[in-house]
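Re-run requested by the PI after the first attempt was lost when the workstation crashed. Everything re-entered from the original request form. Ligand of interest: S-adenosylmethionine.
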Amino acid sequence: MKGNAVGGHTPVLVREVCELLAIRPGDVVVDATVGAGGHARLFAEACGSAGRLIGLDVDPANLALAGENLRDCPCRVDLLHDNFANLRAALGSLGVQRVNVLFADLGVSSTQLDQADRGFSFQRDGPLDMRMDPRLKVTAADLVNRIKERELCDLIYFNAQERAARRIAKRICQARRDGRITTTSRLAQIICGALRVDPNSRRSKIHPATRTFQALRMAVNDESGCLTTLLEIAPAVLAPSGRFGVMAFHSVEDKPVKLDFRQRKNERIYGIVTKRPIVAGDEERRANPRSRSAKLRVAVRLPDDGTEGA
Ligand SMILES: C[S@@+](CC[C@H](N)C(=O)[O-])C[C@H]1O[C@@H](n2cnc3c(N)ncnc32)[C@H](O)[C@@H]1O
């Protein structure tokens, strides 16, 4: 099973996601990060004409792509411009209380990274924005130019485990005295200067600005806060035997998923479907470099009496 690229985004671990979520005809499926609709298209086919697909995304541009991609789906489709942290209210607005499948494919999509004017990428010059949801008020430029050095250092360290956070924060604060930092290329240059690395040299496997950009993006979009809320509310929205899949792309987002699933297993709320996280095979890693860091975890909601059955 192959997920076709939609609007430039190739969905990751498509076969594994579909197998492990085990969608049945008639299921109500929530894709909490519908993006361009690559995974969702397959979910819609699996739940069929008796099923229902509900897709959420904070990015209206991606929602529009999903709308096109899901136009002729067999099932009822509802696409909502909403944050998955508001999932309960979003489902309430549709008169849905419990769902059979809940899936989140975290982070940004290639469609967002590829648009220079969204400001997500150090490889494309653009305004330092990074808002996935255009309704948000604070951009990456606001953070970089306004917050104290200590706060900036913590933000970079805790959101991306960047060991050079202190050096980078210091250099950013020095540089902003010469004028507001407003573009991705200027920020990338400042980071390379702080680390004394030429981004074109092959010394490091990843671009020196990768972690700092990730950290800022996570802060602008409150990605950790939203994930924490999703993990908190998931048991209440999952029907007994309902499956919950989360795909993460770095340890700062995978770790809370691992710990949450483990704790709820001990509380007999979840059974763990993936004893170890599922990762992409060699072929997929070669074909789609983004898949290299993906980790998929799936849990199953146990009935309220904690039995395995149903
Ligand atoms: C990796 S992409 C998903 C791609 C999708 N699975 C596909 O096949 O096209 C992640 C998407 O999640 C969205 N997103 C990120 N955080 C979100 C949140 N808290 N609530 C809703 N959508 C979110 C992003 O805007 C982006 O479109």
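Saved to the shared folder this time. The CA atoms of residues 227 and 287 lie 28 Å apart.
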